[in-house]
Design brief:
55% of the residues lie in helices and 14% in strands. With 100 residues, it is α+β, with helices and mostly antiparallel strands. The chain has one domain: Arc Repressor Mutant, subunit A (Orthogonal Bundle). The radius of gyration is 17 Å and the shape is elongated. The chain starts with a helix and ends in a 16-residue tail after the last helix. The relative contact order is 0.15.
Length: 100
């Protein structure tokens, strides 16, 4: 559950959500992201650090630049968790008699 909390914490900020949306289009470097966002480079780098720590984005170096992209597996795990906790998504797994 700690990983789940970290995923959703990372996705709880509007700037980070916008970064995720931009990265869903293609990999991008920090320079490109801060130009699009109109935010200071330090701010964009901080948000990318949070997203990377949560496993939502990955990074690779190409020349002098680092390119960030989405981590598909983590996003799939987030979707799976959301489906499990959806109404009636846990049917049959709850030990309480009220759910039976």
């Amino acid at each position: 559950m700690a990983h789940v909390a970290q995923w959703f914490f990372a996705a709880s900020d509007i700037t980070r959500l916008y970064i995720l949306e931009l990265l869903s289009q293609r990999e991008r470097c920090v320079t490109e992201l801060y130009e699009i966002l109109g935010a200071p480079q330090s701010s964009v780098s901080f948000h990318l650090k949070v997203l990377k720590a949560a496993g939502l984005v990955g990074v690779h170096r190409y020349g002098r630049r680092k390119y960030y992209g989405l981590e598909d597996d983590t996003l799939k795990h987030m979707i799976a968790f959301a489906l499990i906790v959806s109404p009636r998504g846990h049917a049959g797994t709850c030990p309480l008699t009220c759910c039976q």
